[in-house]
Amino acid sequence: MNIKPLLTADGSHTLYLEELDETYHSRHGALQESLHVFIQNGLEFVVRSGLQNIFLLEVGFGTGLNAWLTFQAALAQGITVHYTCVEPFPLPEAIWSNLNYAPAEQQNDFALLHRSEWNRTVSLNQHFELTKLQTTIQEVRIPESHFHLVYFDAFAPSKQPELWTPDVLAKTTASLQHQGVWVTYSAKGEVRRSLMQCGMTVERLPGPPGKKHMLRAVKH
Q: What is the 3-state secondary structure (H, E, C) of 78-147?
């Protein structure tokens, strides 16, 4: 893969994947996008419901930004997160080690997320347990009615439509417990309709900078 680092408008890094002509995050601000979509409208929404012990699935570990922000939130709020992610193409250390997400004093914690062994569960501290699965969302076996929260952070539907099919969306929503929450940066109508067909209640929320809308769905 030919991957190049880029600075986004908020000063945080993203990566440009030449094969897809696509970036890993919004060029308007990688950090802002992840905080808005996945932390504020995902994790914090779940925590406000009263959950303190959260089972979370991420589709697309990528740069580790969502995991890093979730790791920090777990420590800050004193919650426990069991974080499972599915990523077929882990980044080499030469790339992730140069990302500017963590200040110098926290670089070791950020590196721990990336260096943790794949395909096994690792307890990073009393608040964060990590399971990184090196496979595709199509191939992975995930339990049904298990997770409280899904971060769906695959590349855009226009770039990798095979990751946004009704079957894949049904698989990820089936993995949610009752009242489980599913969030993504995309607001495409076909994604929204597929989620509704899975029995989800879907909200179109204001998006992060540079994007009009995002989606959050709740399982009933």
A: CCEEEEEEECCCCCCHHHHCCCCCCCHHHHHHHHHHHHCCECCEEEEECCEEEEEECCCCCCCCCCCCCE
Which pLDDT value is given to residue 218? 98
Q: Are strands 128-133 and 200-206 parallel, antiparallel or unpaired?
A: unpaired
Query: The domain containing residue 162 runs over which residues?
Result: 29-219
Count the residues in the chain. Answer: 220
pTM for the structure as a whole: 0.97
Would 4 be classed as within a structural domain? no
CATH number (domain holding residue 194): 3.40.50.150
Q: What is the pLDDT of residues 138-172, one digit of tens each?
A: 999 999 999 999 999 999 999 999 999 999 999 99
Inside any domain, residue 1: no
> Using an 8 Å Cβ cutoff, are 192 and 215 in contact?
yes
Report how far residue 57's alpha carbon sits from residue 85's, in angstroms, rounded to the nearest whole number.
6
123 belongs to a structural domain: yes
Classify strands 147-152 and 53-59 as parallel, antiparallel or unpaired. parallel
Residue 186, in any domain of the structure: yes
Tokens representing 155 are 């590349």
